[in-house]
Write a structure and sequence with these properties.
Radius of gyration: 28 Å
Number of strands: 0
Oligomer: single chain
Largest sheet: none
Helix content: over 70%
Length: about 90
């Protein structure tokens, strides 16, 4: 009788450990994917701001001059530190 109860508890313990390890693995997998997506998005925004915005502002300035509209200087690109990250 005691041997059977011990075996049941051992099987439950192994099942619970398997479930916990599977959940931890899934969490680590999705946390890694989230971080990779975050880095890609951050790189995209930084590239867009530093390489493409100046050209877009210049094209808009030329369009405005063709329409006879006078524009102020475009704003400088400035990265803001949020939670210790940024430039």
């Amino acid at each position: 009788m005691i041997h059977g109860i011990f075996l049941q508890h051992a099987v439950l313990l192994v099942a619970y450990l398997f479930i916990a390890i599977a959940q931890l693995g899934a969490f680590v997998h999705f946390a890694g994917r989230w971080y990779a997506n975050y880095r890609i998005q951050k790189s995209f925004v930084e590239d867009m701001a530093t390489n493409h915005l100046p050209h877009i502002y210049e094209a808009l300035r030329q369009i405005a001059e063709g329409q006879g509209i006078e524009l102020k200087e475009p704003p400088l690109v400035k990265f803001v530190k949020i939670n210790g990250e940024g430039k």
